[in-house]
Amino acid sequence: MSGWDDLYPLPMLPTWVPGAAAGIVSLHLIQKLLFPYFWADLRYLLKVLLYGLRVEMYRLQGRIVTVLDKFVKLAEKQPHKPFLIYEGKVHTYQDVDRRSNRIAQVFLHHGALKKGDTVALLMGNEPDFIHVWFGLAKLGCVVAFLNFNVRSKSLLHCVSSCEPKILVVGADLLGTLEEILPNLQKDVSVWIMTKDSTFPSVHTLLDKIEAASEDPVPVNQHSANNIKSSVLYIFTSGTTGLPKAAVISHMQVLKGAAGLWAFGATAEDIIYITLPLYHSAASLLGIGGCIELGATCVLKKKFSASQFWSDCKKYNVTVIQYIGELCRYLCSQPVKEGEKNHKVRLAVGNGVRNDVWREFLNRFGAVKICEFYGATEGNICFMNHTGKIGSVGRTNFFYKLFFPFDLIKYDFQKDEPIRNKDGWCEKVKKGEAGLLISKVNAKNPFFGYAGNKRHTEKKLLCEVFKKGDLYLNTGDLMVQDHENFLYFWDRIGDTFRWKGENVATTEVSDVIVMLDFIQEANVYGVSVPDHEGKAGMASLILKQNTSLDLGQMYKQVVTYLPSYACPLFLRVQEKMEMTGTFKQQKFRLVDEGFNPSMITDPLYFLDNSKKAYVLLTKEVHEMILSGKMKL
User: Fewer C-beta within 10 Å: the chain N or C terminus?
Assistant: First the structure.
């Protein structure tokens, strides 16, 4: 061997190499120990910055490439690729482009619409929702998405607040139209998605679409030169009162459309959308995200827990969208064989509880849950890119540089941020719940609401930490832990969340006090075990010499309120407690909940199977807690 070594001596490593190797290993171990999320944070931050730079380039060039522009380009580049699959029928990129052209031509010639006009859209989940939306966008119109669950006075308020020239109504919502038509402003032209109409002065759309040209309208109709110009109105309950039309700009649409890409979705993915398209989650993140990727979307008329996984297998779905309730409904389904035999790899959404998150993963396999936080009208977003159970996202020094936010102390009794003796707000410590506020500036603007300027002003906090600063009050309480993970805690103000929707308590109480036997109604949300959000409960004071008419009460709430806003529980009291600032006292009522063993006041429960309010007995209470009584 020595002779061989003499002929071919092994090269000696420089003396610094072992030291360098040991240093690299040490640095790696230190990074793993002290900064375990460094590389995940860096990858996510680079993605955010990359997309931000692209949007900034649009602004500097004065020519914004909108999501609609991207769709039209894709229709040219991949005309035969499926864009939408609905009830088994495939609609290619070219199909959707051409039908939306027809709709644009109809409204250009028959509707007398011009760039900047507003059109309200009252339709359920169906391809024509997207065709009408895109067709109107090609005319440069602002499209207002109306929540089809909203009824009567609230729906009329929504229509008037966005001041549309035209209201387009789906064929399956003509009953809702009939309710509001007599009181609808006379200057609003109504179009329905049918070939003929029994309504006077209502235009039909389907017949005109069939006769219209597929030629595109001139590009200058919709070309955008300001990234901050309005393109959509999406309604939100916010923290008080009737629904408000949040102004959605090109900037927000572009940011929303980047969500699936940021979580790692690609053009090869097939996205399953069961959430309503009037929500920003389905329209911006779902449809917009599909366009950003050049992917395919499977659209469902309405979420069905029993058909969910069979649809995923049938259409080879790889990405699903969820809200917390959706995951719970899936976990509540009877266990079947082969539940992990699917191709779903990403689930993107918000509001899933820790226990449901774990059960979902155990039962349905290695699906990456991509939880995020972002209000429709907000200017801040968090994304859980690490998969930490329960968290809505992470923050760090660099993220806060680009998206400044803070969690501040909040007075629950006075329902306002706490200010110190000098008048400034104070930040909470890590691990404490605080009100999430995000800085409003040129890079992170707040576009507010259409209509009443007062609603926009009420969402802003001035002079927070120093003179002249301005922050958006998100209305959400959050907690930041010692690893900088963020967790949603609760909502403030006169609102609660149920069935994935925000419920404004004042809107519900306004409907109840219309009854001639109700003196006062105090509406609040109560926790129900194993359910996300809070169920509606109303404490009632009856007028003198009257009695509670449960039949009238049931008829009133189901007629004038969306199903998710109808109070599930009623409590009849003799006297309404008030706070020191003469507001209705809710805290004690919320704590007491709906337990007939603890409450001596009469309690009633909305039994949907009987379509009536029934006495809330101990037996009924136990059935609700055990899950035998469906809410």
Answer: N
Between 415 and 605, the higher pLDDT residue:
605
Cα-flanking dihedrals φ and ψ of residue 458, to 5°?
-70, -20
- Strand, helix or coil for residue 319: strand
CB 372 within 8 Å of CB 381: yes
Q: Which residue has the higher pLDDT, 140 or 52?
A: 140
107: pLDDT strictly greater than 90: yes
Helices (H), 523-608: 550-560, 587-592
Helix ranges (H only) for 110-166 are: 127-137, 152-162
Tokens for 606, please give them.
């909305």
Q: Would you say the C-alpha torsion 169, 170, 171, 176 has a positive or negative sign? A: negative
Per residue in 559-596, pLDDT (tens digit) is 889 899 999 999 999 887 755 444 566 778 888 999 99
**Residue showing tokens 């008037």:** 160
Residue 604, both tokens: 């009633």
Phi and psi based region of residue 365 (left: phi greater than 0; alpha: psi -120 to 50; beta: remaining) = left
In this structure, are residues 618 and 626 in contact, taking their beta carbons and an 8 Å threshold? no
Burial of 164 (0-12, 13-18, 19+ CB in 10 A): buried
The amino acid present at 336, given as its one-letter code, is: K
DSSP class of residue 429 equals P
pTM for the model: 0.86
Closest by alpha carbon to 536, among 513, 514, 557? Answer: 557
Q: Could you tell me which residues come within 8 angstroms of residue 475 by beta carbon, excluding any fewer than 6 positions away?
A: 238, 239, 375, 435, 459, 491, 492, 493, 495
- What was the pLDDT predicted at 338? 87
d(CA 617, CA 619): 5
Q: Per residue in 146-166, pLDDT tens?
A: 999 988 888 999 999 999 999
Is 125 a residue whose pLDDT tops 90?
Answer: yes
Residue 405: HSE in the Cβ half-sphere, 13 Å Cα cutoff: 29
Query: What is the bridge-based pairing of β-strands 501-504 and 495-498?
Result: antiparallel
Could you tell me which of 493, 609, 586, 512 has the C-alpha nearest to residue 553? Answer: 512
Give the C-alpha separation, 98 to 620, whole Å.
Answer: 55
Give CA–CA dist 168/173, Å, rounded.
10
Name every residue whose Cβ is closer than 8 Å to that of residue 434 and which is 6 or more positions away in sequence.
406, 407, 408, 409, 410, 427, 428, 477, 478, 479
The enclosing H or E element of 280 equals: helix 280-280
H helix intervals, 315-351: 324-332
- Asked whether 182 and 270 are in contact (CB, 8 A), the reply is no
Q: Are 535 and 624 a contacting pair, CB within 8 Å?
A: no
Task: Name the 3-class secondary structure at 101.
Answer: helix
pLDDT over 70 at 238, yes or no: no
Task: Give 382's strand partners.
Answer: 373
Q: Tell me if 215 sits within 8 A of 101, measured CB to CB.
A: yes
Interatomic CA distance for residues 335 and 331, integer angstroms? 8
CA distances 191 to 84, 210, 232, Å, are 24, 15, 19
Give counts: helices (H), strands (E), the chain: 22, 30
Please name which of 410, 118, 424 lies closest in space to residue 239, comparing C-alpha atoms: 410
